[in-house]
Every structure is written in C-alpha cells, then in structure tokens.
Amino acid sequence: MPEALIIGFGKSGVAAARLLKQEGWEVELCDSSTSPTLLEQQQQLASEHITVKLGYTPEFTDSDISKLIVVSPGVPWDIPILAKARELGIETIGEMELAWRQLQDIPWVAITGTNGKTTTTALTAAIFQTAGMNAPACGNIGYAACEVALSTKKLDWIIGELSSYQIESSITLAPRIGIWTTFTPDHLARHKTLENYYNIKAKLLHNSQIQIFNGDDVYLSKLGLNHWPNAYWTSVKGEKFLIGEKGFYIENGWVMEKISATPQPIVEVSALRMVGEHNQQNLLMSVAAARLADINITAISQAVREFPGVPHRLEHICNWQDIDFINDSKATNYDAAEVGLASVQSPAILIAGGEAKAGDDTAWLAQIQAKAAAVLLIGNAAPAFAKRLQEVGYSNYHIVETMEKAVSMSAELAKKYQASVVLLSPACASFDQYPNFEMRGEDFRQLCQKYLM
Questions:
Q1: Which candidate, 327, 345, 324, 329, places its Cα nearest to that of 452?
Q2: Helices (DSSP H) in 251-346: which residue ranges?
Q3: What is the Cβ-side half-sphere exposure of residue 143, based on CA atoms within 13 angstroms?
Q4: Gap between the Cα atoms of 48 and 124, Å rounded
Q5: CA-CA distance, 72 to 12, in Å (whole number)?
Q6: Helix (H, G, I), strand (E, B), or coil: what is residue 248?
Q7: pLDDT by residue (tens digit) across 9-65?
Q8: Residues 166/96, Cβ–Cβ less than 8 Å
Q9: What single-letter DSSP state applies at residue 215?
Q10: Which end of the chain has fewer beta carbons closer than 10 Å to its terminal beta carbon, N or C?
Q11: Where are the beta strands (DSSP E) in 155-275?
C-alpha cells in the first residue's frame, strides 16, 4: 500500500497526486471506472512515477495501511471504504483540504451556495485581477485547488468556489472572506437531510474571518442576525431591506456600500452586462468581497464593465431571425432553472430535462406556465416532466429525447409562436446523456451553429 492514496481520477485527483509527489510522497491513484481517455492519462502519470489503478476499489486491512487518503470532490464522503479507512485511523481528507494546507498563508475568498456561486466566483476573480492581483479562481471553477498549489508564481489571493462536497471533506479550511450566495434543497441524494446540507455550508462561513450573505435569499434572511450577528448582508431592494447596520445594497441604480455611517456609491448596476435580478445579487456579493479586501472603486468599476459573463449560465449563443438562443446548461436544479426562465423575455421556447434531482418544482412549473410558449423535453426526466406539466394543466410540451431534435424543433416553434427566445435551462443534471453540464452546453452551441448559422 502506498504512503498516500488518491481516490477519484478527475482533474482534482490528478492535481492532488502531482502535489503530493512533489512533496516527496509515494503516491497511488485509483478509480473504479476506466475509459480510453483515462488509460491515456494513466500512461502520462506513469511517466511521472505515479501509479494509477483503473477499474479498482481499494480494500484496507490492518497490516496494509496508507498514511493519507485524499478524496476527489465527486467521491461521496460516506462510502464504506472511507468509513473503514477512518475506523482504521487513516487520515482522510478532500483535495481542497490538501490544497489549503499548502496555501493557507495566502488569503482566500471562499464562495459557496446552492446557486449563483460560479458567477460570483468568476466576477470576484475578475475584480481582484483587474486590481492587479494574482488571484486565480479555483475549486469548482477554473483550476483544481491543488493545481494552484503547484504553481510557482507568487499568489496574492485565492478565489475558491466550494461545493458542499468540498467543504464536507475540508477539515481546517478557514478563509479570510466567506460568501454564501443562496440556500435551497440540492444534493439531498448525497446529504440526506436539508439540515445536514445546511450545516456543511455553515461550517465554511463559521470558519471565515469575514462573512457575506445574500440577504435576498428567503432561507438565509430568516436566520439573519440571530445566527450570523457579525455578517455583512446584501440586498437588491434598497437600504431599508438591509439586515443589520452594515452591508451592500442597490439604490437608484447604484451598488451602495454601507460600512461607516455614510453610505457611498461604488458602481452603476447597468455596468454589468448580465441580465436578471439574481445577477445583481451576485454583483453585490462580489463587490462586497472586493471592498472588504480594500480594492479601490476604479478597479471594481472597470472589472464589472468588462465582465463577459459565465459560459453555460444564461450565455447568449446566437440570434437567428430575431430569436435569441441562450445556453443555461448550468441550471441543474429547479431553482436555477426558474431563475433562468425568469430572466428572459416571454414568450420563450424552453428546452428542459436530463437526469432529474430531488427538489420542489412548484415555482419552476409556475414560471413555465407564465413564460413558455412550448417546452421540449430531453433525457431520462422527459416522461416524468411531461406528467408534472399535465398535472398543472400545461399541455404544450413535446418529448424529443435528444438535444439535436430539440434545437431543430425549437427554431420552428419559436417562429410559430413568435417567441423571442429559445432557452436551454434543463433543471436537471446531465449524466444521462453527457459527462457534465459543460459538454451539454457545448452540444447545444454546436447544434445552434450547425442549424442556424
């Protein structure tokens, strides 16, 4: 058995293996799956003296023990082999925790939440970078955190997007600034209860020196100052909706900062190119992080103006005969998909479906009834979604199964119903048809280009 065992052969696992190897560890990486791509990577890592075992699940015995196990974010934290490892006293940590141990002398902004964290992370990193800092975005976005730890460049800040999986397996991670964007039921198949899911997210904020919360989030705002007395709160609705005495809000088209007695304007909301109230919430949290890190107003304003948005999140793909085609593949749950639909003009043609998740679909269905001229259903969830639409009295849906059929049919339906938008906003994970939501969004982009350009 090696000194360090890494479980999960994604980008994070490979970066963790290289980091430990650099630190002088004997490293083995294993993954229960195999594929031609993984076999190719296996050969690459073999040349770096890192052993990779594919189609393999380790078994631990008392006589044959690693000193350290590092788990990739996609590997559930409570699977039997990890429970056994912990029982045997083997130190078991996530890839994010390993990176933190290397990088804890550098201040972190750590961003978590059910929805909104990718845009907030990307915008925050853009502001810090515009201010002249080397502040890479990592974690769930951009680089794996261990890739950043491998970098030889001097780092000023680290801007990390952290999923509940990454927080769960990070024991000592303590950011300078913690941001909580939204909180709604998600990943319950893994975390079992809403309380458990909340507590995992809350751990990151409790460990943060400075805390920033989205005060417009229904769940978080109810907790308010009772649970988080020292936090900075944000609101798009104006100063009178601010929770507590300090925070960031929108008034008369400006992002306002209220830290001292006199509020001051920071940047015009119209400088941000992204649509939707949720993106104004993201803007507030990013600006809050920047100001609390002492970044000047000029750099913030420039970064916000230049920020192009995030791929696969309400991303404009093309305009065909006055119809906008928008890729919102990152909307992998009902809440994100509801926000996506709320952000576009009606009537819209909606493409939805994939691998369904647990959650409350009520508000999403209401948004469909209000804004969608027709719905095209793809993937495994199509029959169940069709049934739910029927139950709420919505009949203009078509089960088309594949993205290709959805894109070609959406153009016809948009013309028929004079819809101004075709929106891919799936409300589902992608794993029934694609390796990840990015590949799903890329397929949509390529099909739009093939049929419409």
A1: 324
A2: 277-292, 297-306, 334-343
A3: 17
A4: 35
A5: 6
A6: strand
A7: 888 999 999 999 999 999 999 988 888 888 888 999 999 999 999 998 888 765 566
A8: yes
A9: T
A10: C
A11: 158-161, 177-180, 210-214, 232-235, 247-251, 254-258, 264-268
